[in-house]
Design a protein that fits this description.
782 residues, alpha/beta, eight-stranded mixed β-sheet, seven-stranded mixed β-sheet, 27 strands, 17% strand, globular, Phosphofructokinase_dom
């Protein structure tokens, strides 16, 4: 059978020149993308040029276009904004300006452009590409370039990466900078909440998003805001009264603060702006509440990029170079983007046209179309927000007479509380009576089960750890008592939120169905573990928060190492036998190596790493960072590696070690974990409701099929319910990890960006796809 695998070794960039520029508004993570393009380009043998100050630098030429070296992108990863500068450029909009830009590129042999910017920047790049041959003809006629030069540089290849904090580009789930902007917003909201509670205040927050409400919508989801106003979904007439009623109801429920989030482009049904001052005056006039306005402004663009943005930008940067290497003269300009957890390439102009269609729909007051055109991720965020924010009065609720219990199992993970809040509120909206179980299955067998109401979970999204309490105890030990408690409280469905122990628990309960009818009920598990070691899902609630904690610490350590010079740090991460945190943390922190259990290593590998660092110390980057997963090897412990490096590096570098420990489990959940936990929990409750209706016969619930005990996980592009019994074969129970793990494909990436020669399978890299109109089939996917 022929092997269709494609390896990076077979793709050569020799003789090619790549120009990289950042244009338009800056976004955190742009530097990580530039770094990845430069290093990947150099790795494949191409020359890479920085084009400083965006299109202006391309038009002006001279020192604005400089060849990049490996060291020139060192220490960029953790810096916000764009180091190579960005500028709005009027000259490039003129034919004369584009002619000068073409001349500057041809003189340096650049026929491959990687443009990092928003839709305006990418549209400009495409126009430039379409005009390219005509521009070269003009330059030949004016005698500025030779006919031969025109032939050699006859085709211009363009690949775009979307850098925009607004996430306003169709075709991609997340643009570079959006996650970091959400971090800034949530940091501010969390800080405001404490002062607002002290004085029983209402806060009106304005966030960026002139034409797109993504930041407002997701930050409202992530902090449990009382009201959100976005341009894509203007409130219906009479919204002022509805909003004031909601605020006063919340105060009557003893909630001491109100948060209203407004996108700067928020409008009413008549396309008139809704400003923060208008809302403040409304609240003061109608309710007399002490109200304050905070406009976040450029704070959202600033600060260090989040772990998510660094990984996204690094993956996209490498993908962009691959796309340029594979481009032929007929290849249209494309955008590299992320769909779910999958890298994709999409025709640039299809994405731009769809993005422009959103604005057209909004101008024509076709707001439902605008939401749909924004894509599945946006639409699902909006639907989840609607589900959770508007509390219905009891008479409006369907009454199901079903009891659903929610519990946390295993180690704490940030985002668990957001998932519990979402489950409780969606469950109540669906008409169920919700029960909270304290301390996992240990509390279950002792009867620590009580009804939990809508107001009981207020303010839970931003809380770290597990408010319900969680234990690692598995149910098999106390199966009789648990069955008895299921009977006493008449529990008709279970939602288990946790890590590997939660997965094992569901398998044990499934197994016990033959002996106890009490467990013949719908059961769903949500993966929540910092280790990200559960089969059936690419991502787990809590892993993103943990990665950010690791990356933040690594940044500080790198800063310390840069100051002292010639110093290497060995950092131990958690994760059990799963190397996810060590590998992805290393990619996001720009580490030199990461030792993990899944990729066995020996003394020769350690020796080679020491030699690599010795060579590195001869350059201008005189520091090293090495991550080690806690269980990567029984004998090559953190102490052993530290002592080996110290001995072998004598006279060249000195060594320090740092065990990160439980700080990786704590802290306030990241916006990603809050949002992910909230969305998958809402989806799980809707699945439970559906199963309860299907399995209700003759007055009681009976579910004993495989598909009534499921894990809900993200698989590449979609959220999927998978029977736990079918995931059993995919799991290594001895080491508590899945047998196949997607993130192992990121390891060669980490090594390439750290200057190691390695084999990299690129058969999975994105093939050019077409954007799906309205994505109607896809909408339920995430």
């Amino acid at each position: 059978m022929p092997d269709n695998k494609k390896f990076i070794e077979n793709l050569s960039g020799t003789g090619k020149c790549i120009g990289v520029l950042t244009s338009g508004g800056d976004a955190q993570g742009m530097n990580a993308a530039v770094r990845a393009v430069v290093r990947m380009g150099i790795y494949v043998g191409a020359k890479v040029y920085f084009i400083h100050e965006g299109y202006q630098g391309m038009v002006d030429g001279g020192d604005n276009i400089k060849e990049a070296s490996w060291e020139s992108v060192s220490s960029m990863l953790q810096v916000g904004g764009t180091v190579i500068g960005s500028a709005r450029c009027k000259d490039f909009r003129t034919h004369e300006g584009r002619l000068r830009a073409a001349l500057n590129l041809v003189q340096r042999g650049i026929t491959n452009l990687c443009v990092i910017g928003g839709d305006g920047s990418l549209t400009g790049a495409n126009l430039f590409r379409e005009e390219w041959s005509g521009l070269l003809d003009e330059l030949v006629q004016s005698g500025e370039i030779s006919e031969e030069a025109s032939q050699i540089h006859s085709a211009l290849h363009i690949v775009g990466m979307v850098g925009s904090i607004d996430n306003d580009f169709c075709g991609t789930d997340m643009t570079i900078g959006t996650d970091s902007a959400l971090h800034r917003i949530i940091e501010v909201v969390d800080a405001i909440m404490t002062t607002a509670q002290s004085h029983q205040r209402t806060f009106v927050l304005e966030v960026m998003g002139r034409h797109c409400g993504y930041l407002a919508l997701v930050s409202a989801l992530a902090c449990g805001a009382d009201w959100v106003l976005i341009p894509e979904m203007p409130p219906k007439d009479g919204w002022e009264e509805q909003m004031c009623n909601k605020l006063s109801e919340n105060r009557a429920d003893k909630k001491r603060l109100n948060i209203i989030i407004v996108a700067e482009g928020a409008i009413d049904q008549n396309n008139k702006p809704i400003t923060t001052e208008l809302i403040k005056d409304l609240v003061v006039r109608c309710l007399g509440f002490d109200t304050r306005v905070t406009i976040l402004g450029h704070v959202q663009r600033g600060g260090t990029p989040s772990a998510f943005d660094r990984i996204l930008a690094s993956r996209m940067g490498v993908e962009a170079v691959l796309a340029l290497l594979e481009a032929s003269p007929g290849t249209p300009a494309c955008v590299v983007s992320l769909c779910g957890n999958q890298a994709v390439r999409l025709p640039l102009m299809e994405c731009v046209q769809m993005t422009q269609e959103v604005q057209k729909a909004m101008d024509e007051k076709r707001f439902e179309d605008a939401v749909r055109l924004r894509g599945r991720s946006f639409e699902n965020n909006l639907n989840t927000y609607k589900l959770l924010s508007h509390r219905k009065i009891d008479s409006e609720l369907p009454h199901s007479s079903f009891n659903v219990a929610v519990l946390n199992v295993g180690a704490p993970a940030a985002g668990m509380n957001a998932a519990v809040r979402s489950a409780v509120r969606v469950g109540i909206t669906e008409g169920h009576t919700m029960f909270a179980v304290s301390d996992g299955f240990e509390g279950f067998c002792k009867g620590q089960i009580k009804e939990i109401k809508w107001g009981d979970v207020g303010g839970w999204t931003g809380q770290g750890g597990s408010l319900l309490g969680t234990k690692r105890t598995l149910p098999a030990k106390h199966i009789d008592k648990i069955a008895e408690q299921m009977r006493i409280h008449n529990i008709n469905a279970l939602l288990v939120i946790g890590g590997f122990e939660a997965f094992e628990s569901l398998l044990q309960l499934f197994d016990a169905r033959s002996r106890y009818e009490e467990f013949c009920v719908p059961m769903c598990m949500l993966p929540a573990t910092i280790s990200n070691n559960v089969s059936g899902t690419d991502l787990s609630i809590g892993a993103d928060t943990s990665l950010n904690a690791i990356v933040e610490t690594c940044d500080r350590i790198k800063q310390s190492a840069s100051g002292t010079k010639r110093r290497v740090f060995i950092i131990e991460t958690m994760g059990g036998y799963c190397g996810y945190l060590a590998t992805v943390g290393a990619l996001a922190a720009g580490a030199d190596a990461a030792y993990i259990y899944e990729e066995p290593f020996d003394i020769r590998d350690l020796q080679s790493n020491v030699e690599h660092l010795t060579e590195k110390m001869k350059t201008s980057i005189q520091r090293g960072l090495v991550l080690r997963n806690e269980n990567c090897s029984v004998n090559y412990t953190t102490d052993f590696i530290y002592q080996l490096y110290s001995e072998e590096g004598k006279g060249v570098f000195d060594c320090r070690k740092n065990v990160l420990g439980h700080m990786q489990q704590g802290g306030s959940p990241s916006p990603f974990d809050r949002n992910f936990g909230t969305k998958i929990s809402a989806k799980a409750m809707q699945w439970i409701s559906k199963k309860l209706k299907e399995c209700y016969r003759e007055g009681h619930v009976f579910a004993n099929t495989e598909d009534s005990a499921c894990l809900l996980g993200m698989r590449r592009r979609a959220l999927v319910f998978q029977p736990v019994i079918q995931l059993k074969d995919e799991t290594d129970f001895v080491h508590r990890i899945p047998k196949e793990q997607w993130w192992l494909r990121l390891r060669p990436l980490m090594k390439i960006l750290a200057k190691y020669k390695t084999s990299y399978d690129v058969s999975d890299s994105g093939q050019l796809e077409h954007i799906i109109r309205l994505r109607t089939k896809d909408i339920s996917a995430i």
